[in-house]
User: Fold this.
Amino acid sequence: MTGDALGWWGVPLAVGAGAIRVSTPFLFVSLGEVVTETAGRINLGLEGTLVMGAMSGYAISYYSGSPWLGVLAAGIVGSLLGALHAGICSLPKVNDIAVGIALLLFGTGLAFFLGTPFVAPQAPNLPSIPLGFWSHVPQIQAALKVNALFFIGVAAAPLLAWALRNTGTGLMIRMVGDNAEAARAMGYSPIQVRLWATTFGGFMAGVGGSFLSLYYPGSWSEGLSSGQGIIAVALVIFARWRPMYCLWASLLFGGAGALGPALQSVGVSQGYYIFNAAPYLLTLVIMIIACSPDRTLAGAPGELSITK
Amino acid sequence: MGGIIQRWLGVLLPLLLALAATMVVFGAFLAVQGVDPIQAYGIIWLGGFGTWFSWQDSLVRAAPLLLTGLCVALPAQMGLMIIGGEGAFVLGALGAVAAGLALASSGLPDVVVDIAMGIAGICAGGALIAFCGILRFKRGVNETISSLLLAYISIAFMNQIIAGPMRDPASLNRPATRTLPDNLMLGDIPGTTIHVGLIFGLVCCVAAYICVYFTKFGFAARVVGGNARAGRVVGLPVERMIVAFCFAAGGAAGLGGMVEVAAVQGAVSSDIATGAGYTGILVAFLARMNPLAIIPVAVLLGGLDAAGGLLQQRLNLPDATMLVFRGVLFVMLLASEAFQGRLTRYLVPRRRLAEVV
Assistant:
């Protein structure tokens, strides 16, 4: 492991590298979910979308030989699942949380079923950019190999923040999420806006999934996701529905996830699992501190079922 | 009389439609894979409910779902949406094993130790969900998210405990607790291969049904669920009721965890997180939060679970086939919710509808 040669210095290096590597799926899923939740709906099925994206991205990359085509396919499959969620939720009296859990089970089941033939073969992976070329230390070189998707995600965060704040589409999404009645009075259809917002969320989750199978860990297996799709939903709350905060929170959660293995590699094996749960604990503590009985979290969309 | 038929038709018709739609969609899915859907459905029926053997398998698999379903259905009476049953399930198993191992050599009768294990499981699971309820009214933290977060935290806590303080030194590669001695394991219902955990589940469901629909306490809970402010105005102790219902809900899931460890697995390892807590959410939704309706729904899902093995054996389909079937079924059933009580409007002439209402 990285810690061997560098001793204790390996820990911050591994955490930093982990923050960059592990955070990418969080970043994509949470940026998508920010848009979905801003429009007033919560999609808990993103875990299933993520796994489905990972599987289909891997399969397409294997057949076509182009990992970027795989990423695109993962996004398309993800948007289909998102649209399915939105379609069912637009029926009257249907609970979005229950539909999310049903689609979570459906997505993972379908991915496991269709993915059986792809467990063994190796598909071409996404290339990485070696930013550590200046260093002679192999650990630093390894840590600074950064995938292009990470940069796309980092660029998407401010872009999304700007679009939600300043464009007409962004205003429309926020209005539908804050007060559907007002939006309807203005002539917008909340159902339609939410359909597009959830589809976008599905697309991003699919792309996030393809990162898992095509870069890190870089192969398809049934145990590929360890709940990143669910963490990302919590992360959006942690980030108070702000895309830029999603970026910082993803890095923080990625780093927290990398802390356990990094400490283990220098011989500290105590608390390994607790470090893995750190993102959940952090989110819970933040919610306990920031909520109060008379008001909900600041920045929460008014129509969101989980904050009402 | 006509009113009752009307009501039942209104509830059952969408369910049957959802089932039919599932059969069509999943049948098409199988046909694309080159599998004869009719043959596959025959095997699913056989594997789930075709023989006494498969019935026993289905009922064993239904047992934990009865209890985790209650973990969602009980708080729902008060308008709370708890989705962290998996955490209560895992903590219940851990608490039960801790109690069982601690008392194993105490010389107490086995039944007493088993009861202590059950109580430990109920308290561990109940405390977790009650905490969500307390957070809800003390801090205004949404119980759906807090219970989901706590489920993940509980699983991490369980992994930490079984890798550290409670680890069996003999479990080298996969950390696990020591195994419960055989005399503490729950037995089968005489004449069957179904463990007594099924009876726990059935009793809890019936008791919950009676409590919710036939007691003053249950009535008060439904008043609060309908309108919490109205409940406060008429002087109901809303906070205490939330804690009581959440504790009962988590206790049911915790008891499910105790059954899983004391009747099936024998020790707690990471396998204890079977996903029963998450399936329980759908059980409760499909039962429309009615504790009694949880029983048939859980048996149905247990049967689907049981059929997976046979399907794999006979048709050489992957294990995940039943996951796909279950997923399609859930999606269809939830979508059918939209048509509850609406279809009869088209079947029965309006004039008669006015009469029966």
In short: The radius of gyration of chain B is 22 Å. Residues 65-316 of chain B form a domain with the ABC transporter involved in vitamin B12 uptake, BtuC fold (CATH 1.10.3470). Residues 167 and 177 of chain B are 5 Å apart (CA to CA). Chain B touches chain A through 46 residues (CB under 8 Å).
